[in-house]
Amino acid sequence: MTPDEAATARKSALIYLVISFGAALVFLLATLVTGKDYTPVARVGGAAWVFLLTMIITMPLVIPAMKKRERNGRT
Asked: Is 49 helix (H, G, I), strand (E, B) or coil?
């Protein structure tokens, strides 16, 4: 892997990790704001599940987009 490819991979990872963490945080905040009596295990488990599913969805979308962006000369 060339240094440019490694940099693109790191940028891609940062992007989909931030998106996934943000989605999990939104889920966690939604469980707190609704006022329902969810257990802490349900809240954290749900947030972890949302994080995992969002990672699965965003990885194959972000990586090619970043590669295309780098290939076109944009950072």
From this structure: helix
DSSP letter for each residue of 4-41: HHHHHHHHHHHHHHHHHHHHHHHHHHHHHHT-----HH
Which residue has tokens 């989909």?
Answer: 16
Residues 6 or more apart in contact with residue 48 via CB below 8 angstroms: 24
Q: Which of 24, 20, 8 is nearest to 57 (CA)?
A: 20
Nearest-angstrom CA–CA distance, 54 and 17: 9
pLDDT tens digits for 8-62? Answer: 899 999 999 999 999 999 999 999 998 788 899 999 999 999 999 999 999 999 9
